[in-house]
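Running co-folding for fe (ii) ion.
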Amino acid sequence: MERSGVWRDGGMPRTARLASGEAAMDAATKRRWGDQMFALLAANTTQMADREYVQPVADYVDPGHAGRERDLLFRRTPLIVATSDELSEPGAFRTVDIDGISAVIVRQDDGSLRAFHNVCRHRGCRVVDAECGTARTFTCKFHSWVYGGDGALRYVPMVEAFAGMDRAERGLVPLPVAERHGLVWLVPTAGQPLDLDSFLGPMSDALAAMRIAEAGVFRFEHFAENLNWKLVVDTFLELYHVPHLHTKTVGRYLEGRGAIHEQLGCHSRFIAPRKSFMPALKDVPPDQRDISDHMLVINRVFPNAVVIWQRDHVEFWTATPDGGDPNRCMVRLWLLSPTKVVSEADRVKWEKNWTIVKDTVRDEDFPMACTIQKGFSGGAQDHVVFGRNEIGLHDFHRALKEALAAA
Ligand code: FES
Ligand SMILES: [Fe+2]
């Protein structure tokens, strides 16, 4: 099961094919983005909201607010918990903890997925301890009740001790699960509806363009952080800090301006130019500009995921509250690679990608976010301000506010 407090390598290089930049987005979309980014960079600016956004600090530290988020967002909303690739074979399973809910997701023989509360129907033990694997049955360690991968209770030792029990009614409790575009979504409450098409809306096409279904997981890690889960998402939603905080890492190849932002229902995406954008494209006629190599696309998937497209690969992050404490969260990171057999030369490249992600976010963004969390707890101020240039943050927090108000 998941451990906290450490960065842990939970994956091995795996099967993978990923779309080239050419294929990932359609030409009309890239042309539109190219024109917009070119105009912004030429004017030495970035896309701006009409006004600044005032964000209450209490949303990050108040236990009552955290409780509402848990009940309304992290119990009722579809949450990305795995890739389809991680559950490719019949019997493949993964366990996941979502702020107190332990679930196990299993690939069925007919190719569908099922998910269950990872809780024994005898006296309530966790049934599956491993984070992932392949199994035909799951045996609870306490008294060896045996469940099938379909959740059915298959065997009870000394069954005569449970004379009135109907085994058919003692299977693992099912949870709603669905997959789309190579990603797996879970709703951690039994009986909740799960309609991914209406939930994703316009984000569905944006995710399809990432072509994650064709990719594999090069590496997956999870780790605990002492910060509110929203600060993890906030990290990825503005470029303003890039030339200031990341001078030695991503600041070397990413612009601090020129980004464009698109709201997609309760989700959004944010397109950021690389430093190569202007040098490569400034003398190219607009209809001949190919921006694929000179941008990255940051998809924010409501409520808690960020799926980042970077030319030849995708990385994605999720953050969930942890332990019912607004000051803690569990972060999960997947790096998808495009090759089935990772050659030595390719391995160097993917290890380097992984190192860049870790060095930047773990060593630079999250320590900063931890100081924010402490500052929020210290009562210095009751609100912070998102600048007109931090438009991705406006949209994220507005979407959260609307979802909590509507529930
Ligand atoms: S608690 Fe699982 S078999 Fe007893
Ligand atoms: Fe950053």
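Result summary
Residues 120, 122-123, 125, 140, 142-143, 145 surround FE2/S2 (inorganic) cluster (ligand 1) (CB under 6 Å).
Confidence is low (pLDDT under 50) at residues 1-23.
Job closed.
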